[in-house]
């Protein structure tokens, strides 16, 4: 199972993504993330969620190979709906979501983390939205929650990445620690939250979402419309084919 969920005795629910080699999730994987967060929302024994990953990095976004090996637009529509559901489930989870980010966090990974309530990262972690390289748009909504406006535009247009250690100064990443200490650091925050009255924390989560200046669900859905346009124009297919070919060539070396 690429997505697992385990509720600890202290009320911390650990949701883990593990889909080798790079945690690029399939359509079903994104819906499974959404289901795990929805389960946490409905379970009153869950006091806080810790979202983490096994492997080389936290998340590499959508599985491009699945998309290119599927005829028609079914995989594209599935990925868009799956990502929307997963990001929305993180944001609307009734309890706080702590993201423990190791290594790379790009594309859809930024969508998950940008909608989380707290981010702890390994000191080798980095974030990026390389969508323009694959002829798509999206997750700018969520990157905007991590960096200031002009930094967002530079990162988005250039497809550059930014280190987690550099995000600490913006306050979007709480702290960075050596990778082997990441789980302990995230659990310290989770334990602090779990020690509070969960009725109050759930009310606080709803209240904070209610005063957000940007409707992240509607904003991301707006971005997705441009992805559809680029696909209908044939631009996205062309760039995804180039990407898939490059990745295949790397694997053959």
Automatic annotation (TrEMBL):
MF terms (GO), sorted A to Z: enoyl-CoA hydratase activity
Any one Gene Ontology BP term: fatty acid beta-oxidation
InterPro entries in the cross-refs: ClpP/crotonase-like_dom_sf, Enoyl-CoA_hydra/iso
Record-linked NCBIfam families: PRK07938.1
Family: Belongs to the enoyl-CoA hydratase/isomerase family.
PANTHER family: (7AS)-7A-METHYL-1,5-DIOXO-2,3,5,6,7,7A-HEXAHYDRO-1H-INDENE-CARBOXYL-COA HYDROLASE, ENOYL-COA HYDRATASE-RELATED
Protein name per the record: Enoyl-CoA hydratase
